[in-house]
Design a protein that fits this description.
Layout (H helix, E strand, L loop, with lengths): L8 H7 L1 H7 L8 H10 L3 H11 L2 H14 L8 H12 L3 H12 L6 H10 L4 E3 L5 E3 L4 H15 L3 H20 L1
Length: 180
């Protein structure tokens, strides 16, 4: 069986202190996938999606976020360019693709889920411009936070009657990525 990035929820929280607030559920020594399943079973979808975004490595998190949005009714043709830019970085994680995704995201509507998949790819390493003259290293947690936002926005755009079922299918996909 493949080894998970983080064996327990506590391990993940120790590595990513921002996850504590983003997930909003106290960590435990429970195994990561068991913790994720317990969040899903409790219908704590925002917490579960947030935890899964941190559980995955950056490239896998971006691929997962794009896959989720593509599978949902929330994805629209206008989202294609942003999702495609993020996927270009997933398929070929080179600096030019990362910067293209970041540039596209910064010129897009932050209220749109697909914008955040492009941010996730753009923040997946290297540096980010901070004022036009200077740049800073991309924070390690930025990709997870961007995928978290993408999936929360994407989930909110779903019909209420099917939202939880769609989000559960997203989480199943995230678990497959975690075990790959």
């Amino acid at each position: 069986m493949p080894r998970l990035r983080f064996e327990t929820a506590q391990d993940l929280y120790e590595t990513y202190p921002t996850a504590r607030g983003d997930v909003g559920v106290a960590a435990s020594e429970q195994g990561s996938l068991d913790f994720l399943r317990s969040l899903s079973d409790a219908n704590a979808m925002k917490a579960a999606l947030s935890f899964c975004a941190y559980l995955l490595a950056r490239r896998e998190a971006v691929a997962w976020g794009c896959e989720c949005l593509r599978q949902s009714e929330a994805s629209r043709p206008a989202d294609e360019i942003r999702i495609a830019a993020a996927e270009a970085w997933v398929n070929e994680p080179e600096e030019r693709n990362r910067l293209r995704a970041l540039d596209l995201a910064t010129r897009s509507d932050p209220r749109e889920a697909a914008t955040w998949t492009a941010f996730a790819a753009g923040w997946a390493g290297g540096t980010v411009p901070i004022d036009g003259k200077h740049s800073a290293p991309s924070p390690q947690h930025a990709t997870a936070q961007a995928i978290r936002v993408a999936l929360i926005l994407g989930g909110n755009a779903l019909p209420a009657a099917s939202r939880a079922d769609v989000q559960r299918s997203w989480l199943e996909g995230g678990m497959r990525f975690a075990l790959a």
